[in-house]
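Input chain follows. Return structure tokens only.
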Amino acid sequence: MRASLTRAQRAGALLTPMHSIMRLVSLKVGIEDSGHTPFELIGGPKDLERLHEPANATERLVRDDGGVLHFTLAGDETRAGINILAYDFELYFPKPGSLQFVRYDLNLPGHTNDLRAMRCHLHPGSDDHQVAAPRLSPLELLDLLVFRVRPLREERSKNLLLP
């Protein structure tokens, strides 16, 4: 994850300096139990209230357009490999606009959303609304939120062929 964020920073899509990326992405490892080692990977502070002013790029993962990214993922490592159990990846914009935030969630097995066949879903700007989403890998989600979820208005101004 750090390597992907570093590539995004070198490409100019992320304003957060390299030394801050190293500090903002952390791994917490639990106690090995029966061949399983649980872990949690955290990328940037989770802002439950979401900032309303521009974010400091040394304190958060900040895109070139001011969007703020944070993520957490939980899993375990076994002899067979890594098993991702749950994640949330959120991109939000501190300034008022048409999209306040978008968040992709994968809930733990057995969660209420799992029983509703919505274990993996996205929140399109509201915690109260969910849309079923395909399960993506953490690196796919990082790529999506850093490079691909962009206002179409920007793309239209760059390419007159887009409607």
